[in-house]
Automatic annotation (TrEMBL):
<protein>
    <submittedName>
        <fullName>Uncharacterized protein</fullName>
    </submittedName>
</protein>
Length: 681
């Protein structure tokens, strides 16, 4: 077989993304992921795939296969293509590129060695053996977002590609795939001056502006469940005992927290439980089956996974009302299968109901999500808790997420849920003690750091996990929490996933185990700080806002959002009452002849300018535990209050705990830089 050596035969698109002709190629490059030198074994492959997302079967189409930078022609017949290619080593990556009059698509097939392996060793690779042989809007969106995550280049190895899929934002992936398909079919018109969807994607500002022209979100959500871009399951035995499904993970660092996650648990009787980040007030048990499409179908047993949510209803358009949400089942399909991590899509069906004097409401509704899925037990065995708890001569203390029953919950929520992270002292003999963090009082004031000391018991489980049990007290039922480590992390933050259970419900969460650094101090809070929202990079497109916390010497502050040249901010104020953390307050006031309240600098100024009522409406309280250069790792607790009071009011507010999460703040400018320790000799 012969590669196309004439540079003129290489498509314009291939040139633009950095593909060279065979005459420009020397030895195969080292993997950018880990410097792994390829095995210099020539591999012949015969590829047999299909093309989806074309406007019509008669549309002129050309296809080429790129192997390690060399281009091979493919033969296209209708919606199928075949190509014979040669790889100089087993690590050379193989990509298919398709060009038609209305679309340009790509698919990253994987390394030559991987393709040879799935073919059974004969080198003849079919779609049934490798789903990525399907070139489609989805495969193009996936390849595009991997390139975005790698800052403009393709993955240099299978492992690098797989790792990058963990960081793809699901809504971005679905939106890109949906629009590429809609542009090619003519269902959505391209902006003037653009020939195809890929050209629009390559113009970030134009693509971002186009997304504002209309709301494509509702139509895009179900898109992947109407396509053939997935890897069917054939048996429940293909599922691990515990499947973790996570929201996107940062590219450049371990995750300190996650936007969402689920745990799929196989029970001894063959049923499954699906635990979610939202607190479930009924046991989430499901029967499982592989349906005719090769998807995992979960059917609820009774009222599985019931929870309460807020929704705007037809008779309450300006104030959300509590709705009871009961699961009607879930469908899960594998989009991409990797060696350790896979990309899954879920479709969940719910029955929402509300009955009150305000009105009656009942509706079935569906939600969709994209997950990074993996075998949690296998990951936990690689990072067992026994490594962190010492040998009986050391008694470590770790700050861990806590679950408890609290009165500081919204009225529609169960009392059981997240509480402030607390230090847990692990003593020899499978016991220990912890001190709950008091947090914020009824006047939205900062309370002393820690409350009463309480005991707990713990045990190490065979899969490397840690189980912590807190017994009943006169005021609170006991809790049972299981913690899994799934990546190594660092001394500052060791990522974990946990499942919390009590008489009041069930939920899962993601956090980190942190050891408090001796002598840790915040230093000066004054300056500009960034959080994981801006510093932890994801593979997403278009780019999102940059968030900064800016604190000024006079105690005022601003929460700032930066998007390109656009800057917006809201007023805050801060103080430093304890020396151990810094709270940032937001205040709201209601003025005469104004229908709604709005944010003010503080209540003193608001009352001086005529406000009728005012109160602190939110506080973000950051407690540092570990410093690494300009970055402080710790815990952020979020509280809110909806009750506005007149001047002179001394009673309690309606304080609610919104969240407690592992966090960090990184000083990028201002007085806070003076607290950064020197580096080097």
């Amino acid at each position: 077989m012969t590669a196309v050596s004439d540079p003129g035969a290489v498509t314009q698109w291939a040139q633009r993304i950095g593909v060279s002709s065979v005459t420009e190629t020397g030895a195969a490059p080292l993997s950018a992921a880990g410097g792994h030198r390829s095995s210099q074994v020539s591999i012949d492959l015969s590829l047999n795939g299909e093309i989806a997302g074309l406007a019509s079967a008669n549309e002129p189409v050309t296809a080429t296969v790129v192997v390690g930078g060399r281009v091979f022609p493919a033969i296209v017949q209708g919606a199928t293509y075949t190509a014979s290619v040669n790889a100089l080593s087993d690590t050379e990556m193989v990509t298919v590129e398709v060009v038609s009059t209305r679309a340009r698509y790509r698919s990253v097939l994987g390394s030559a060695g991987k393709l040879q392996a799935v073919s059974g060793g004969d080198g003849d690779v079919t779609l049934a053996e490798r789903a990525s042989l399907r070139v489609s809007p989805f495969s193009t969106a996936l390849a595009w977002l991997v390139r975005i995550g790698l800052e403009g280049r393709d993955a240099a190895s299978d492992s690098e590609f797989e790792t990058m899929t963990r960081s793809i934002v699901g809504n971005d992936l679905v939106m890109v795939a949906y629009l590429l398909d809609a542009f090619a079919s003519g269902a959505v018109a391209l902006p003037q001056g653009y020939q195809d969807g890929q050209q629009l994607l390559e113009a970030p500002a134009a693509y971002a502006e186009f997304l504002w022209t209309q709301d494509f979100y509702p139509a895009s959500q179900a898109y992947l469940f109407s396509q053939a871009d997935y890897v069917p399951l054939t048996s429940l035995a293909q599922l691990p005992d515990v499947t973790a499904m996570l929201a996107p993970l940062p590219i450049n660092e371990p995750a300190v927290s996650l936007g969402d996650l689920q745990l799929l648990y196989r029970q001894n009787d063959g049923s499954f439980t699906l635990f979610e980040e939202e607190v479930l007030v009924t046991y989430p048990r499901y029967t499982a089956a592989i349906n005719g499409q090769g998807e995992l179908s979960l059917t609820p047993v009774g009222e599985a996974g019931t929870r309460n949510v807020l929704r705007y209803l037809p008779f309450s358009l300006f104030q959300p009302l509590p709705v009871q949400r009961v699961s009607r089942g879930h469908r899960l399909r594998r989009l991409v299968v990797g060696d350790d991590y896979s990309l899954w899509a879920s479709r969940s069906l719910w029955f929402d109901s509300h009955h009150s004097p305000a009105g009656d409401f009942e509706e079935e509704t569906a939600t969709y999500a994209i997950w990074s899925a993996f075998d949690l037990d296998a990951a936990s065995l690689q990072h067992p808790w026994g490594q962190l708890l010492g040998d009986g001569l050391q008694f470590p203390t770790y700050s861990l997420p806590s679950a408890c029953t609290s009165t500081q919950r919204a009225a529609y929520q169960p009392g059981f849920g997240k509480c402030a992270h607390a230090p847990y002292w692990f003593r020899y003999g499978q016991g220990g003690s912890f001190r709950a963090v008091d947090g914020i009082g009824e006047r939205m004031e900062i309370l002393p750091s820690y409350g009463l000391e309480r005991s707990f018991s713990y045990q190490l489980i065979g899969n490397g996990a840690l189980q912590v049990v807190r017994g009943n007290t006169p005021t609170e039922p006991g809790t049972d929490s299981t913690f899994w480590r799934y990546v190594a992390g660092s001394a500052a933050s060791r990522p974990l996933i946990y499942l919390a259970r009590a008489a009041g419900g069930y939920f899962v969460g993601a956090s980190v185990a942190m050891v408090e650094q001796p002598g840790i101090t915040l230093g000066s809070p004054v300056g500009s700080w960034r959080t994981p929202a801006s510093e932890a990079r994801l593979a997403r497109y278009p780019a999102v806002r940059t968030f900064e916390i800016r604190r000024f010497p006079d105690g005022s502050g601003r929460d700032v959002n930066i998007m390109g040249n656009q800057v917006s901010s809201t007023q805050t104020s801060w103080n430093y009452p304890t020396g151990s953390g810094v709270p940032d307050y937001s205040f709201r006031a209601l003025f005469p002849n104004r229908p709604t309240s709005f944010i003010v600098a503080n209540c003193t100024q608001a009352f001086a300018t005529g406000a009728e009522t005012c109160a602190p409406s939110r506080v973000r309280y950051f407690r540092p535990l570990y410093r690494v250069g300009a970055r402080l790792y710790g815990v952020s607790d979020f509280y809110s209050n909806d009750f506005l009071a007149p001047a002179g009011y001394t009673g309690p507010y309606q304080v609610q705990l919104l969240d407690s999460r592992a966090d960090y703040i990184e000083c990028i400018a201002g007085d806070c830089l003076a607290s950064v320790p020197p580096t080097g000799p």
